[in-house]
Design a protein that fits this description.
Helix content: 25-40%
Radius of gyration: 21 Å
Distance between the termini: 38 Å
Order of helices and strands: HHEEEHEHEEHEHEHHEHHEHHEH
Shape: globular
CATH class of one domain: Alpha Beta
Strand order of the largest sheet: 1-4-7-8-9
Mean pLDDT: 96
CATH architecture of one domain: Alpha-Beta Barrel
Low-confidence stretches: none
Strand content: 5-15%
Number of helices: 13
Structural class: alpha/beta
CATH superfamily of one domain: Glycosidases
Oligomer: single chain
Number of strands: 11
Length: 363
């Protein structure tokens, strides 16, 4: 949306004063799309976002403020415009043909869900796997503290085991958080998915937490879409949400009890692919505050999507079947018209959370 790495660097004092301890960046790699998820070079910073030296400067400045930096990493697929894929399309004898899922001698291929512009990478191929893992290690070498792993259900479990091992050898403190969610997956998509028992799970609609739990022992944790579902259903869409607090907390306790104790389930009320919570709540700021208060009372790490702390909203829903609909949830930060009441509320929530002992968290 026009922002860049230098702009984030300039706003580090704001983020530090807000109280955050980790900065999660959208993909910074060279890309063919505005949002960054169509990678054309896993080893370069996109020129619209800045230069590699800008990323290093941001990481070093963040570290001086005790803020960690994790990158959004996309191992499952790349842009159709990636030069390796372009060569594979043009030359059936190219070694890169084996990096992708081509059907026999045709130019038909597996992709990310239904998105033909995103060919799926064959991570079982040693050279392809080494290229992708090498990219992760490259950015770790530049000071990155870990990764949010896009579409974790796409790659094979064997890939994640090798990926995690290699990352932890390079930096034992690096954090690996997956996006493991099958909401909206169609039967036709299953051939591109690598979760266990996927056809049975799709047919019998098994609980999403079972997908999330599947990555225990491979990743440090997964983003908690179930929390987002509950907070929307019980707070955003209820006329009297305060009456639903105890029910919600009870469901969260049951949810947490399903997972290993050391497994991270970062919670969020907003993200870049969904309508913002305050939109779902009918622009009700009181409901947003209540949702954040619950989120920050829970034992798992809270994620604060940019703009949530100033009640940034929109007037049309995010519908991923509609081109560019996601831009509703990705509007520029309104730096010149911040809602200081909300900013101060979030700053206080973060400060109170830091003062708590783990035993004081709910549920």
């Amino acid at each position: 949306m026009g922002g860049n790495l230098k702009g984030i660097l300039e706003k580090l004092p704001y983020l530090h004063e807000l109280g955050i301890n980790t900065l999660w960046l959208s993909p910074v790699n060279e890309t063919s799309a505005y949002h960054g998820y169509h990678i054309t070079d896993f080893y370069k910073v996109d020129r619209h976002f800045g230069k590699e030296k800008d990323l290093i400067a941001l990481i070093e400045a963040a570290h001086r403020l005790n803020i960690r930096v994790i990158l959004d990493f996309v191992p499952n697929h790349c842009s159709r415009k990636h030069p390796f894929f372009q060569e594979a399309l043009a030359d059936h004898k190219s070694p890169y043909r084996k990096w992708f899922y081509f059907k026999s001698q045709s130019n038909k291929y597996l992709c990310f869900l239904d998105f033909r512009e995103l060919p799926k990478i064959r991570l079982g191929n040693r050279d392809a796997r080494n290229h992708i893992i090498g990219a992760a290690l490259y950015w770790l070498g530049k000071g990155t503290d870990g990764f949010r792993l896009d579409h974790a259900i796409g790659p094979e479990h064997d890939f994640w085991k090798v990926f995690s091992t290699e990352v932890k050898i390079r930096n034992p403190e690096a954090v690996l958080i997956g996006e493991a969610w099958m909401e909206g997956i169609k039967f036709s998509h299953l051939k591109t998915i690598r979760v266990r028992n996927k056809y049975l799970r799709w047919l019998y609609d098994l609980k999403p937490r079972q997908i999330q739990q599947e990555y225990a022992g491979e990743l440090d944790g997964v983003l908690d879409f179930y929390f987002r579902y509950l907070i929307t259903e019980y707070i955003a869409r209820k006329e009297h949400p305060a009456d639903c607090r105890e029910i919600l907390l009870g469901k969260m306790k049951e949810h947490y009890d399903f997972f290993p104790e050391a497994y991270f389930l970062p919670s969020f009320v907003d993200n870049h692919d969904m309508s913002r919570f305050i939109y779902e709540a009918g622009q009700n700021k009181a409901k947003l505050k209540q949702a954040l208060e619950i989120q920050f009372s829970l034992p798992q790490p809270p994620v604060l999507y940019y703009g949530t702390e100033t009640a940034l909203t929109h007037d049309a829903p995010v519908d991923l079947s509609v081109p560019y609909s996601d831009l509703q949830a990705r509007k520029p930060m309104p730096w010149h018209s911040l809602d200081l009441d909300m900013v101060n509320f979030c700053r206080d929530l973060i400060a109170r959370r830091k003062r708590k002992k783990p035993s004081e968290y709910l549920p």
